Amino acid sequence: MTPTHHDLLIRGGTVIDGTRAPRFDADVAVRDGRISAIGRLGGHGADTVIEAHGRIVAPGFIDSHTHDDQALLSQATLPFKVSQGVTTVVAGNCGISAAPLRPGMELPMPLSLLDSPDEGRFTTFRAYLDALRARPASVNVAAMVGHSTLRAVTMASLDREATPDEIAAMQALVEEAMQAGAIGLSTGTFYPPAVKATTEEIIAVGQPLRARQALYVTHMRDEADRVMEALDETFRIGRELGVPVVVSHHKVQNTQNFGRSQVTLPHIREAMKTQRICLDCYPYTAGSTMIRTDRGMLGGRVLIAASQPHPECAGRDLADIAREWGVEPDEAARRLQPGSAIYFLMDEGDVQRILAFDDTMIGSDGIPVGESPHPRLWGTFPRVLGHYSRDVGLFPLETAVWKMTGLTARNFGLHQRGTLAPGHHADIVVFDAATVRDAATYETPTRPAEGIDAVIVNGAVTWRQGAHTGARNGQVITRTESSR
Ligand SMILES: [Zn+2]
User: Fold this and answer.
1) CATH number reported for the structural domain that contains residue 386 in this entry
2) Beta bridge partners of residue 31, listed in sequence order
3) Rounded to the nearest whole angstrom, what is the distance from the C-alpha of residue 132 to the centroid of ligand 1?
4) pTM over 0.90
5) Under DSSP, is residue 291 helix (H, G, I), strand (E, B) or coil?
6) How far apart are CA 64 and CA 370, in angstroms?
7) How far does residue 195's CA lie from ligand 1's centre (Å)?
8) Which residue range forms the structural domain that includes residue 314?
9) Are residues 114 and 207 in the same domain?
10) 431-460, pLDDT tens digit by residue?
């Protein structure tokens, strides 16, 4: 018999359970960090009651694509995530992870962008996960090991293919990460530290994924003119390793490629007939990454997010800075390095088509660095719920929630998360479907979203009425646990 006294009772709300099933009215109860009951719980009591009349009660959102590896330790309350309703982040994307590293080693861009040496360097993946367990963040984390990080820690120079010895060393480090609980391996062959890595190198380094069905996740070599070749390379790696692949932040960029999602998405759909593939996407037409000087990246508006030599330039347009300095934009970009910038290189039609694709998960790709980040860091999830689902009508709210909960948990193997059911971990968000909206813009990028009433992480109320409660109840979700 279900006990009638709970730790927490969310009363009178409308449940969207994360499976894409139609919403239904129910109370949701929590005990010992788990959902203890869902239904009409009229006679039940609880230590804490949240009144949710007129509100949606949904699984806490899972951010499928983050760079929060160090922020989980250095900014452990993660207000930019919790304020959106996010309760779990997938870290270690785009080939970049916080471990394994050597103390004092020099890191190349973009690895250095996400580093915070003050938190200490982790020489093993296990040490990193142990640090997260010892000092929990406000959200759960499932972490991947990054191929560029492995290259940096293994190879004396990164501007070449790895030797057989270096490949063996990287493979051993992937094995260590898998044993510690990493859920997959990510690559970022778009970025200088891994540009020279061959397909064969990645397949060899990724061998430890095979036995565990761990994921291969990639920021592909090319998301512009050669996007089809990049997709085929990704599919091949997945096939040869026999593991599921995730195409990170799928996009087709630069004007001449606008509309090409009409080709990439059917191509992905076709490949899905014979292998497991999914993708993630952020709901904006601008991307954000390290400051680049190549012409392909400088074809549209460029907004500087952070610059180490010129912090005063954060939030300004590259074109204005270049004019002021009397130099060409590529020279201005060179002087602003290292740093990060926002690039307006995508077409709204492509963004909507990719978001609406059935197997697309929502991932912020937020970069938690500097005072002028891309607004996706603070706005991704409410933007999909409010702007794209409610206002644009791109898909029903049930589908929007599924793309940020149940679908993501299934793809990443996050056991008993992402859907609301008795016995599942009590990761829950309460929001107002009528008012939820992103308030972060390119001009005011760190403004918290509106309409998120309450966020509960493993049973702990972590966000309530516009404020962080200070709770840090996040757990480390490991591959071993997730595959159970
Ligand atoms: Zn990326």
Assistant:
1) 3.20.20.140
2) 34
3) 23
4) yes
5) coil
6) 22
7) 13
8) 296-342
9) yes
10) 999 999 999 999 999 999 999 999 999 999
